[in-house]
Each structure stands twice: as C-alpha cells, then as structure tokens.
Amino acid sequence: MIRHLPMIVSMTAFMATTPAIAQDHSMHGMQTPGAQSSQPEKPKQDAPQADQPVPARDDMPGMDHFSHDTAASPAPQSADTRTMEDMSDMEGMDHSGHNMSGASGMQMVGTALPVGNTPPPPAPTDHYADRDFPAAEMAQARSAMMKEPTFSQLLLNIFEYQANKGHDGYRWEGEGWYGGDINRLWIKSEGEGEFGRGIDTAEVQALYSHAIDPYFNLQGGVRQDFGRGPDRTYATIGFEGLAPGYFEVEGALFLSTKGDLLGRVEGYYDQRITQRLVFQPSVELNFSAQNVPENDIGSGLVNFELGGRLRYEISRQFAPYVGISYLQKTGGTARLARLAGEDVHATSFVTGVRFWF
Amino acid sequence: MNTILDRRQFMRGAAVASGSLALAQWFPAWAQTASEGLRPTLPTLSGEDITLTIARQSMTIDGRPFRAIGINGTVPAPLLRLREGQRVRLNVVNQLEQDSSIHWHGLLVPAKDDGVPGVSFPGIKPGSNYLYDFPVMQSGTYWYHSHSGLQEQEGHYGPIIIDPAGTDPIAYNREHVIVLADHSPLSPEAIFRRLKVDPGHFNFQRQTLAGLFSGRDQALNERLDWGQMRMDPTDISDVTGSTYTYLVNGHGPFDNWTALFTPGERVRLRFINASAMTTFNCRIPGLKLSIVQADGQNVMPVEVDEFQIGVAETYDVIVTPAEDKAFTIVGEAIDRSGMARATLAPRVGMTAEVPPLRPRPVATMKDMGMDMSSMPGMESMDMTGGGARGVDPSAEQNASGRLSAAVIAAAPSAMDHGAMSGMDHSSMAGMDHSGMAGGMAGMDHGAGGHEMGAMNMRDFSAAPQVDRNPGVQTISPMPVDRTGEPGQGLEDVGHKVLVYRDLMALERNPDVRAPSRSIDIHLTGNMERFMWSFDGKKMSDVHEPIPFTEGERVRVNLINDTMMGHPIHIHGHFFELVTGHGDHSPRKHTVIVQPGGKVSWDFTANAVGDWAFHCHLLYHMHAGMMRIVSVRPRGGVQ
C-alpha cells in the first residue's frame, strides 16, 4: 500500500507541470495517496477513503519527492509540440517528407525532431531463423506462408423454369472458376430447352482468365455448342467485370472452326430493394458477322433479350426468384425464323433459383 | 461487506444462473460467467515453468455449442501472470491435427521465441511441442495467440498480465481482464473463401432502394457518385455480426459475463481486443473511463467516455463506480452489426440497461483519402456522409441488438448535423466525384495551391512506390493524419472519445534520437477481389524483407490507400507515435491507420532477427497484407 506512494506522487507532480490539454484528464485517474490500495481484502478501510475529494494540486503532499526524469521541461516541450502539430497541419498535403527543418530554433525532442535522409541498408539475403533451426524445415514453413491460396466457385445466376405460350421450357446460365487472385481457369455455360423437345441451344466455354485491372478480367479459350443444329466449336476472347455504376458486364467474340464470327455483349445490375430482396434487370445482345444458315443465324444483330428477375436471398448463396424474360429475334435471323414458322419473339414468365457454392 | 460474503453470494448467484456451473469447466476462473475479479496476488498461471496444450474443443456461447480451439481446455486460453524480470519457460504442446504456434503479442522476446512459423521458427508440428524460453523484460497487459493459419479465429488466444518489478504507478483495488473476441459457427477457412468469392458477403447493412425512398443514408446523387467509383460506403467491416457473436472472455452478450466490484473501489479493466476482424467501440454508460495504459505501456491518465480499440490493441482503464448499481460494459462492433456485452456489478445477478446499437456509419470522401475539409474555403463542407439521414430500414444486426430495452429503430437523432452549415453532399450537385480524372476540375480553390483537379481515385503519382496491379483499387489522393480523430462512426456521438493524440507516455521515451531516415509504406487493397497488400504487393509476391540496421532509428509513415481502417502491428518492437508529444510519445505495438489516413511512428530497430509486420485483421494478413522486416547488425555480418 505504502510502496505505491512515491510513484503516485511523482506522477501527480509531473502532471501538475503539464499543459492544460493533459491536465484536463490527469486528475481523474488518480487517487489521493491515502486512498491507495492494492489490497482488496480490506475494502472497509478503502471505501470511505476513496470518497475523499482529490485535493487541489498545490495541496498535494510530497511534491518534493518528485524526482522523475521525465520532468526535464515538460511545459515548454509541450508548447513546442503543439506548434509542431500546427505545422504538420499546414503541411497537410506533404505526406512524404515530414520534414520539420523549418522548425529550427525551437526546442525539439523525441518524435518532434527532424528526420534524416540516411540511405536504407541493403536487404539481407539470409534468413535469420536459419541460425536456430534446420534450414530445410524453415524453408518448408516459409513456402507454406508465402503460398498464394487458390479458391473456386460455382455460380448459377439463372437456373429456371420458363412458362411460355404452349411450350414451357428451362434455362440456365452459370459459371465456375478455380484459381488465385489474378489467374483463373473459368468455365461458363448457358443453354435452354423445351420440355419434351430436349435441349434447344447450349454452350460450354473453357477460358483462361487474367485480371487486367481492379475490376476486369480478360478471358480467352474455347466454346463448344450443343443442342439442335450442328455442334460448332469456337475460339473465344472476351472480358468480364464490374463497370462503373456496379454493372456486371461481359463481352466476347467467337470464331468458329468454319470461320464464322459471332459476338455477344451482356450485363446485369443487382438493385437491392432491401438487404435480401434484389431486382436484377439484365440485357443480352448477340451479333453475327455473316449468315450462318445451319444455325438459323442472319448477319447483324441476331437477337436481344431483356430480363427482370426479383430474388429473395434466403442466404447470400441461395436465392429463389420470379421474373420475366423477353427475347426478340432481329434482322436476317428473324426472317429465317418466320420462314421456318417459328416465333420471332417470346415472352416468358420465369421462376428459378440463383445459387452458388 | 467482506469478501467471504461476496463469495457466498457469488456461489448462490452462480447456482441460480441456470447452467452456468455446468459450463464453468470451459472457462478459466477469471472468465467464468461471474467473476469476482483478479487480485494482483491471485495469479492464474504463473511461475517459471508453464505448460500450454493446444487442442480442439467445443465451447458454449449464449447456450449454443461452437467448435473452438482452446488451450489447456479453455477459451480464452489461461491468463499468464508473469512478473517483470523473471525468466519463463513455456512448454507449448500441439494436440491439433495441424501445425500450430503461439506468438506473445507485444512481448519483447528473442527472435526464435516470437512464434511466427516461417519467420521466427518452423512452427509446432501436430503431436509435438516447442519450449519457449525467454526473460520477461517489461510489464503491462498483453496477449498471446496462434500465428498459424486462421486458428486465432477459433479461440486460440489468451491474456497476459506482467506485473512490474517495482511499484505499479497505476493504483487499483481490483482488476478484471476483458478479452474481446468474435466467434462464428463458420470455419475460418469458409469465412475467408466467402470473402474471396463474394466480397460484401457478410454485409447486411448495405444501402438499398428502401433506404433511398425513406430518406436514409446517402442521397441519390451521392449513391450514383459512389457507384461510379465502384466503392461501397457501407463496407465498414468485412466480417460482421451476421456471422459473428461478439465475446467478452469467451461469453456471448446473453451470457452476460459479470465483473464484480465494491462501490468506491478503483477497478482496473484490462481490455484486450483478441478478435480476428472486429474493431470495437468500448464504453460503460454512466462511468468515466480513465485510460492509464495502451498496448502495455503506461500513459498519462486520460479521461474519456468511449474509446475505439483495434484488433490486437490493449487499453487499461480505471473506473471508479461509486454507486451500488450495475453498469453495462459495451463493446460495439465498429459497423454496429452487434456488440460484446458484459456487466460490472456489485453483486451477481444485477444487470444494467443495455444501450441500443447505434446506426452504422457511412464512409465519406475523407475515408477515401480525399480530405477536402482541409482545403481553404471548404472547411464548412459536410464530410460526414449520410449519417445524418439515418440508416437503411432493412439493415440487419445480430441478436445482441435485442438486448436493449428500448430498441430505437435506427434513430438518427443522436447525430446532430443540423449545426453543420449548409453544404452537405446532397447540395453539391456540381461536384462529380465520378470523374476518374479531373472530375473535380471545376473546384480549384487555388489559394492554397492545391490541385483539386488532380484528384483521381487511382493516381499512382501520389504513391510512386506502389505496384500498379489489379490488387490496388484506389490510391488516396490526399491522405491526412487522422490521429486527432476518434475513429470511424465516432465523430458525432456526443461525448468524449479517445483519440491517439490524447495519449502521452507516462515515462520519457527510452530513445529520443531523431530518426536517421524515413520510409513510406502504403496500405493497399482491392475490396472487390478481397486482395490486401503493402505497396501493392502481397506477402506471396515479395520475398525480400524490409531491411533495418541494428540500433538505427527510423520513421515509418503508414499511408492508408484503402477505405477501411487497418490495425498495423510490428513484432519484436515498440514504436513511438508521431502525434506531437516529443519525448513522451505514446509507445505502441499496434496502431489503427484510419481509412484514407496516415500514421507516422518512430522506432528503434534494436531487436536483431526477422520479424513479422502485418495488418492484424486476420483475413487481411492471410490475404497478403504482411511483410517481413529484418534487423541486422551494422556491417551486415554477425
């Protein structure tokens, strides 16, 4: 109990010499010396004493015992540092320098001192822990620490039943990837079909994906078509990422083994209505550089599709939805469809689930 | 009342509190549901030879079972109570099925005892042990935790108290350890993966259409501006109360861990933020908090109503409750998605009102390193974002939000922005933040020579050393020293909040030389890809350490180019914050660099060896926000 006394007193005395900014807080943490105790076994003694008011500073007994080496000149030092603060405010823009040389003439200590410009030492080539531990064990631990982890994800943004006039169908659109932050193997697939008629159109892409900026990936690889008509194979190059405004966009060019060139641009936006209710408008445009009669494709804009899907995220990973999808064939493609007696446009009410794992 | 009575009441209370006795085995004495508190003379684990066994276990939080990793059968791990000047041999036994380790956070130990696999030692293999053996050269509140993988998230952490060799300048009658943590039913690997594949996964307090229509959060034009920048101003925490329960000494908010006191006592609360990802805002409504120690280093007492504690920081607080009533200890997550809650009471069973969770903050332009308020002529601009407009009505908080008797639906009233004159963002229609280059060209308040037009979200000329790659989403065009600010979301809470500039070392700094050089380190990241790095380079990219010569004094400038605060920690050393206090600069081992802000510190590279240097947000570190610093004797040979 008594042994705490000198330190307490010296602390209090030190604070008595500090500027107002520190004094504002200083006294509250301190007790009168008489109330000091680290012996909770005697609360009866302590409790009433603790209620004693803190005496005014100049009443403080034992000031003369003050021998703290911090006492050097706290008041002027603090005044200096206040000035330094102001200066650093003035220098607000200059975050590299912290050069306080302009403050020469003032008494400066510690962190207020100006910084030198000694060059840095060269980086060592050894590993210090190798002195204490087998180098092979350390190398193993180091490589484990330095290893970049890899991840994977499988996402089906569209996985739905489509209620259409006369012929109900289904549709999917999803992607999976595996890899690190920059380089990934990417698989994309989409397709649709009618119940009782089998898969109408379907494709799978296998892509190498490389991050080219904070938001976008450049992707290249192959695309294989399935479904009705000849199953084409394409070389593909494209991009995908997050555009300003939080639009998820992607685009790709496809060059078939027959020399046909196709293109596609699509995008969607997740509009959060509440934390879990999300409206996702989407658009997809398909182009062709030439007629591809085997696939009922005319040159130019082949078709466009507008969608709107309202999902509820039971969890971030599982979200049932309802929506509407409108497909319009255009140009030569529409002409070919009419000749074949097929619909040129179709409106579907859809219900499905968006999920990933 | 004497202690015998206390104890009887404690026993009775514990028996009444259903189930708490049954659970007691999982907690060390100081962390059981009701704690009489520690006394300086009552150590938990102490002495020169201590054995710590790391093993899988389960733990019960708010009545639900969770997987965990504990030490000697408890989460948190046992309190190590050591004395300055002693030697300690810690035999750590690893009974996990994977490598493990213990790092003594804040303790100055030889490099081989620092416990970082791959840096200081090879790690501890399953079924084997490692003998740490070092002298205890300091005193104060510290903690220890795994530095292997993501084990810390699962409960592999515990407190350390080192009593000073001489008299303690901090007087107190009773003390309690307050270990704050975050715990999830998900495995840490699952959390990390979700962050990688679905950034924003855990944020259920986003801005929505419902919020827009009800006039909450940002106004439409501001939302459009931020959308143009592809920045989410509600991205305050990566992992939130949507999966976390926030703990005090291993107990959930409904467990209500209770610390006892006798009215009139000076009670020392040793706060340790042992969480993986959570910055806490701590307060005890009704009590003034006298901050007496930070990161184990004594400071001049500072009286505050609230303080923000970053991951891995510690603060010792003296409270002097005079009345015979209970008080609630609140550790509110920075994004207000939940809280850690405990009670400080004269007797077991007493509770106090739990305050409602306050509205989550919204990041501002200043958090992106665009501090226009420091520009001449723009002082009156409201940089506080949409806080004044209240929070999204559909925002979700975890169960702890229900503890408040009077849950006020996202009351914006506490923040009086009305006083702030005119210019809020919504009226700044002409100010197009979206312009990737020169969008603000029209706003040149040239008097100070500041080139507003140069402001760019990713202008590498402001940070030439930063590697230009997809992992760098933004560069702060105008980072400012924010050590005089109370931290995100605490600007307008209506009472005194600790700022770093309030801290002054109690003792004169041991090394008051001028730094012989300075280095800049940029804290960089990409929230959309969950990539985190220093200077744009991840740990896995960089195999060369940051070199220091033994004994040299260096100024380190940390510049935050991200929109998130990062608690930066260096191993093996303390540093002195450059906050205007000369030779009484506060000494710390971990410092929060606020979003878009910068922090400078001086340190003496006096511990020869290789040391880890990293962001203490666990998943940021794991994603690569880490480096090795090397300290070698002058001349390079040893």
TrEMBL record, chain A:
Pfam families from the UniProt entry: CopB (PF05275)
Signal peptide (from-to): 1-22
GO molecular function: copper ion binding
Keyword Acyltransferase belongs to the record: no
GO aspect biological process, one term: intracellular copper ion homeostasis
Region feature Disordered, mapped onto this chain: 26-124
Keyword Signal: yes
Compositionally skewed regions (Basic and acidic residues) per UniProt: 56-68
Keyword annotations of the record: Signal
GO cellular component, as recorded: cell outer membrane
Protein name: Copper resistance protein CopB
Species of the source: Edaphosphingomonas fennica
TrEMBL record, chain B:
Entry GO terms, CC: periplasmic space
Chain ranges of the Plastocyanin-like domain: 55-164, 238-331, 515-633
UniProt-listed Pfam families: Cu-oxidase, Cu-oxidase_2, Cu-oxidase_3
Keyword set includes Ribosomal protein: no
Gene3D superfamilies recorded: Cupredoxins - blue copper proteins
Keywords noted in UniProt: Copper, Metal-binding, Oxidoreductase, Signal
Signal sequence extent: 1-31
InterPro entries named among the record's database cross-references: Cu-oxidase-like_N (IPR011707), Cu-oxidase_2nd (IPR001117), Cu-oxidase_C (IPR011706), Cu-oxidase_fam (IPR045087), Cu-R_CopA (IPR006376), Cu_oxidase_CS (IPR033138), Cu_oxidase_Cu_BS (IPR002355), Cupredoxin (IPR008972)
GO MF terms held by the record: copper ion binding; oxidoreductase activity
Top-level taxon in the UniProt lineage: Bacteria
Signal keyword on record: yes
Name of the molecule in the record: Copper-binding protein
